[in-house]
User: What shape does this take?
Amino acid sequence: MAKPAITIKDVAREAKVSVATVSRALNGHENVAEPVRQQVLEVARRLRYTPHAAARSLSSRSTQTIGLVLPDLHGEFFSELMRGIDGVARTHRWHLLVSSYHGDQEQQGVALQAMRGRVDGLLVMSPYAADPGFLKDNLPPALPTVLINTPLVDGQYPAFGIDDHAGAMAMTRHLLETGRRRIAFIAGPEANHDARERLRGFEEAMAGSAAAAQGIVLSGGFDEASGYAAGQALLREARLPDAVFAANDMMALGCLYAFNQASVRVPQQVALAGFDDIPLARFVHPSLTTMQVSIADLGGRATSHLLHMIDRDDASGGGGAILVPSLIVRDSTSRRETS
Assistant: This one.
């Protein structure tokens, strides 16, 4: 005969505290003395108590779950973003329910609708929000929501993002200051807000240069394959540019591979730069100059803000932050030697 399952009452009895205290200790509430919390956790581990998620949800009207809706899950950017989000969620003993929509607006609406009743708050990244009304119409009402890299400007939802325009201007100026004048830019997807802002920053910096500078824009898709294709396109030209600035590191690495195959030396013949500072950027040869965005910190700060909103039962939000990238100069853009 199977042994009866351990209940929260068994933990409370063994720990000599109330059921409410056990619940607060296990759910990470701050109004529990630390010695009591540790005692409850030790008893729960010893008894191998596992909270029943469905019953807990019914009694507390809380799922202890955050919904996360992203445009994609592939690539180092999303891996780092997820690392930051998961770290904060795990620290507070919250779970994640993750969905991606691959840039398809209709699928985004389906994913958002599917979160209703299953999560206590939402993190949404929608850089393709060409029609902001569609996104707002599909966000569950009265549910605490924080936006990440999403171009909604009405302030209805707290938003965390990156100053892509300033970052792209800083990188372009760096390349100009190292003596490069003919600079190719590998752009991201046209419908992507971050890509548009990075292109705008590049074009403004080039236009504002006191020196005679020429900008070349190639299309890309924020992935290695499109960076490789752009590199091959440049190799077919009669003359190589002085520098290539890719709108993200993944495209820069794809371009670097194309140059390596053709024995084009970086940075001696062509300087190369990216954007995001993914972990791999410092471990390639030559190490990649890039704009450093603390991607994990971006996800962590957005998650902390959302948990604070949930704790206050506040769906109105407010706040947020725009993170300014930092220029990280590595070997791929060493200053051009003058004769």
